[in-house]
């Protein structure tokens, strides 16, 4: 997801000694940052799927969101202290919708992930940002990208491997959630500086999911929710899936055009499929790889053909 922020908003980072800055993310080429961010997200998803053996998906989503909220809330703690005083109820309603979309997107994605391979789930979910990229377009060639992406999803849904229809439906719901998330990220970024909006949305999303996560965990036995090793893995999932890629994307977007960023992000379904093979042992069929390729080409083509790509929203 495209995220951007004004340089120096991480407080004392901008005042770090020269030697520390020389070793910072600024010395890493932007394409490498983007690919590392993609890899981080997908490895986090792979770890989350391993947790499904002990915890239901709803509980794993809750732990992930809680970990992200704790870290991001700590980073934005000063701004959060005055958020009610400094912002109107309309602004707070926007960030509340952002938090709900964040929770819904993750819930649907993890439900999908518990039923279908990682690469397939991410490929279908990518229809969300693709739809945002081409909505309202009247260019005939954008219809080609829609048909190509739709063909890929149809191939995934019609057979091969461990794909079931309920998993496909949840992935499509995750795509809707991702599209909403992108739009609300832009709206939130216009109203809240730095990481404040994302931190507040993470807290709201956690509050939305946590009761269901606790209830689902209790129904599944309950004791696993208090297992320190599982909670530690959940913390790792939160860091890998949110905090680390956010930081990497933030730095990359300072140094590359949004269009280039979008094209590189189109590689995410392929990376997800490879992580699924390596981390989860999910071997895809040739038909599934072709379908994933169709969606990747459609996403890259839609991004490349934008005359004026939208600014990366702040978070």
Short description:
The chain has 315 residues and is mainly alpha-helical. It has helices at residues 18-22, 30-51, 57-75, 77-80, 83-86, 89-113, 118-125, 127-134, 140-157, 165-189, 196-219, 228-253, 258-265, 268-280, 286-304. The chain has one domain.
Report what the structure shows.
The protein has 315 residues and is an all-alpha fold. The protein has one domain (30-304). It is 72% helix and 0% strand. The chain is built from 15 helices and no strands. It has helices at residues 18-22, 30-51, 57-75, 77-80, 83-86, 89-113, 118-125, 127-134, 140-157, 165-189, 196-219, 228-253, 258-265, 268-280, 286-304. α8 runs parallel beside α15 (286-304) and α9 runs antiparallel to α15 (286-304). The radius of gyration is 19 Å and the shape is globular. The termini are close together.
Give the SSE map:
Blueprint: H1 18-22, H2 30-51, H3 57-75, H4 77-80, H5 83-86, H6 89-113, H7 118-125, H8 127-134, H9 140-157, H10 165-189, H11 196-219, H12 228-253, H13 258-265, H14 268-280, H15 286-304
Helix pairs in contact: 2-12, 2-14, 3-6, 3-11, 3-12, 6-10, 6-11, 7-10, 7-14, 7-15, 8-10, 8-15, 9-15, 13-15, 14-15
What class do helices, strands and sheet pairing give?
mainly alpha
Biggest sheet architecture: none
Mean pLDDT: 80
> So how many helices?
15
| General shape | globular
Features:
315 residues; mainly alpha; 72% helix; disordered N terminus; disordered C terminus
């Amino acid at each position: 997801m495209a995220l951007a922020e004004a340089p120096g908003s991480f407080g004392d980072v901008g005042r770090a000694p020269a030697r520390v800055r020389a070793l910072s993310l600024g010395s890493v080429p932007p394409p490498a940052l983007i690919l590392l961010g993609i890899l981080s997200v997908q490895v986090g998803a792979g770890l989350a799927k391993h947790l499904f053996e002990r915890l239901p998906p709803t509980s794993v989503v809750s732990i992930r969101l809680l970990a992200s909220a704790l870290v991001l809330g700590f980073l934005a703690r000063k701004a959060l202290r005055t958020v009610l005083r400094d912002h109107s109820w309309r602004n707070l309603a926007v960030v509340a919708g952002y938090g709900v979309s964040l929770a819904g997107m993750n819930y649907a994605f993890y439900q999908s992930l518990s039923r279908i391979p990682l690469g397939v789930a991410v490929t279908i979910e990518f229809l969300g940002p693709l739809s945002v990229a081409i909505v309202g377009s009247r260019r005939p060639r954008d219809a080609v990208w829609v048909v190509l992406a739709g063909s890929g999803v149809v191939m995934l849904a019609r057979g091969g491997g461990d794909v079931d229809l309920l998993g496909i439906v949840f992935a499509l719901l995750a795509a809707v959630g991702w599209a909403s998330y992108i739009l609300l990220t832009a709206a939130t970024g216009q109203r809240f500086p730095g990481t404040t909006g994302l931190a507040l949305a993470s807290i709201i999303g956690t509050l939305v999911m946590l009761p269901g996560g606790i209830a689902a965990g209790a129904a599944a036995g309950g004791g696993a929710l208090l297992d320190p090793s599982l909670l530690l893995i959940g913390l790792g999932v939160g860091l890998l899936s949110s905090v680390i890629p956010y930081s990497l994307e933030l730095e990359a977007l300072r140094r590359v055009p949004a269009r280039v960023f979008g094209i590189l992000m189109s590689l995410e379904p392929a990376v997800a499929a490879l992580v699924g093979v390596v981390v989860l042992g999910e071997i895809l069929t040739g038909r599934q790889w072709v379908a994933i390729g169709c969606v990747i080409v459609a996403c890259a083509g839609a991004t490349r053909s934008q005359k004026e790509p939208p600014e990366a929203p702040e978070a």
